[in-house]
Amino acid sequence: YLVSGTYRYSTITSPNMCSFVNHFNSVSFWASSLILRRDSKDDRQRVYRRLLAVMEHLIKLNNFSSAFALFAALCKTAVRRVVNLTNKQEKILANSQTLMDSSESYKNLRSAFKICDTPSYCLSRSLYGRSNFPDSW
Prior knowledge:
Number of helices: 6
Structural class: mainly alpha
């Protein structure tokens, strides 16, 4: 789920979009590498569970952009190959997949934005730069 596409965003013509795309990719790579750098299977499972819980809370807080970045990391083939998911974790991922499904131009996600009782927001790279992501918990 790397954010990219047919559009070429220029740092001159659309610096905010470039910053958003770079931040999304940074969060996604950070989360997946946090899991994959663990030596033992138990440690990888623990970090995966923690990130899954964080993703759930981000959805509840209507922070869909950060939740989507974590979702992208948790669904990467390399990550899914090294963790065993419980039925509960599979259900959480399935619900998240339904919300973040790209069919009909993200219809479910747009609907979630509309019914939010609090403002939805994106994390800005200026507030949460790459250096603020810890290497371990």
